[in-house]
Amino acid sequence: MKRLDIYIKISFLLAVIIVVISCAINPVTGKTQIMLMSEAQELALGSQYDPQVVATFGEYKSDALLSFIKTKTVEMGKISHRPTLEYHIKILDSPVVNAFAVPGGYIYLTRGILAQLNNESELMGIIGHEMGHITARHSASQQTKQQLGQLVLIGTMIASERLAQYAQNAMQGMQLLFLKFSRDDEREADRLGVRYSSLIGYDAHKMADFFQVLNKMSMAESIGGVPTFLSTHPDPGDRYNTVNQLATWWQDSLKLPSYKVNGDNYLQMIDGIVYGEDPRQGYAEGNIFYHPTLKFKFAFPAGWTMENTPAQINIAPADQKALMIFTMANEKVLQAAADSTLKRIGLTLVESKQVTVNSLPALAAVSKQVAQDQSTGAQSTNMVLSYFIEYGGLIYVFHGVSAEADFATFMSPFESSMKTFSTLTDASKINVKPGKVLIRKVYSTGTVSSALAYYGVKQEQLAEIALLNNLELTAQVPAGKLIKVIGE
Hints:
Shape: globular
Largest sheet: 7 strands, antiparallel
Helix content: 40-55%
Distance between the termini: 69 Å
Radius of gyration: 26 Å
Number of helices: 17
Structural class: alpha+beta
Strand content: 15-25%
């Protein structure tokens, strides 16, 4: 009876919300749509997400490139369906080929996608596509759908696994970013991307060319398989023809004297951009993690998977029954760092002791956390082993967490890993450098393969670098053409 009352209240609340807010007008279509979010709330949500995005991925510094991208984004924004909205665009320090947008005018491009592009027109198509998601309020609409679903589930919602709290620490509120849009949303964003880039004078046919690159990438296991941009922006093959047709229609309608591509200018702007993983931010070889900038290393259990983010490192076994987190404390004193950290993440201290880890001052603590199922009231307990290690004026923190029943099993691998933290002195590990995109001129007319070989591209990398240039290895390239190679 009580549960029925809850559902009646929820249904009434849902009906009221839909009646009150269903009159929202979509800026692109001019049609009404259900929207639980006002424009002011959309702006506030974007400003809330932005620091989380930057903290999660890190921001890539390239002043000249970012200045150009910002200028073009402002120019495009003024001819968009939301010309009064302030658009923000940033470059994220991630090798993954991706671009995404969040409500309120925030657009993000990874250095991975910028390295993959070959001209300004492709770049404008990507920015226009993401701006289309914003102007058509696709992300805000997705948020609305989530909220509607959450309202219906209030009466029977089960408490989420407490372990997830740790793994998602650096991703709080980020679930919206990577929702797959509907096929209709993607097609509309494509249409808007073609429109916006064409209106500022670019050749949108090049946007279609980039879909071909994505198709090739999805089939190229040697370069990491399908990029994230494909997982959130599906079906590039079919969209290639549609975008080409739209580009032709806009050019026939606008009848501009010419449409910009600006390949050489773009390549010169990305000359020196980091390509692939940046080892200066830490890297793993086998089951050892090295940080050449902060000069430390530690081992983790063989067979466990490691995820390195700017905020923290997550390490977990295949069965996901445990999790190790490595991060830094805000405090500079061991005891203060331990007290503050355990309190902040809701842990109850069981025992602690002063220790040393490879001659470094440290504090080891065992804590527990009791979680209550919001639906049944049943309780479960997680156990946590934490090591706080003082090194180089900073406090580094390990947390190893598992359910209480599994803690005895994982205690040994947790502690063994944490005790391997030590100073990194190996010059070969410290002096490692990232790969960079280097722009070079073709020395003499010939095949792409011979041009790349001239600049020392190894045989096993030829296919990858040819794809980076969106060229076939057997294609002819004239003397003086700019191409990408990878070097230090």
